[in-house]
Specification:
By secondary structure, the chain is mainly β. It is built from no helices and 12 strands. The protein has a 6-stranded mixed β-sheet with strand order 2-12-9-4-5-6, with no helix packed on it. Strand 10 and strand 11 form a beta hairpin. The N and C termini lie far apart (40 Å).
Amino acid sequence: QVQLVESGGGLVQAGGSLRLSCAASGFIFRLHSMAWYRQTPGQQRELVATISGSSRLNYADSVKGRFTISRDNAKNTVYLQMKSLKPEDTAVYYCNADPPFNIGGGNYYWGQGTQVTVSS
């Protein structure tokens, strides 16, 4: 079955950088658009960046010019390079397909996510 394992989060000062990774398994990775999402407590999950199977890119306005999504189909891995981080980027970051994997009953699969905390 689908498994997504995010890593690379941590605590960083404003202006710093982090690179997130997401190892995927259980589906034909190269055929799926992939995305990074983020969520803060009490807020809905937000779509941050997407990359199609042919590597077409799309970004939320809030991260354009600072974040770069990429993928390695040979490694079944999607990345998010984050630069010039701001305190408002603090969130739990998740990867998933775009749209997210539907596991039935109105539910979607989500991994454990990785916490990114940006201090001012």
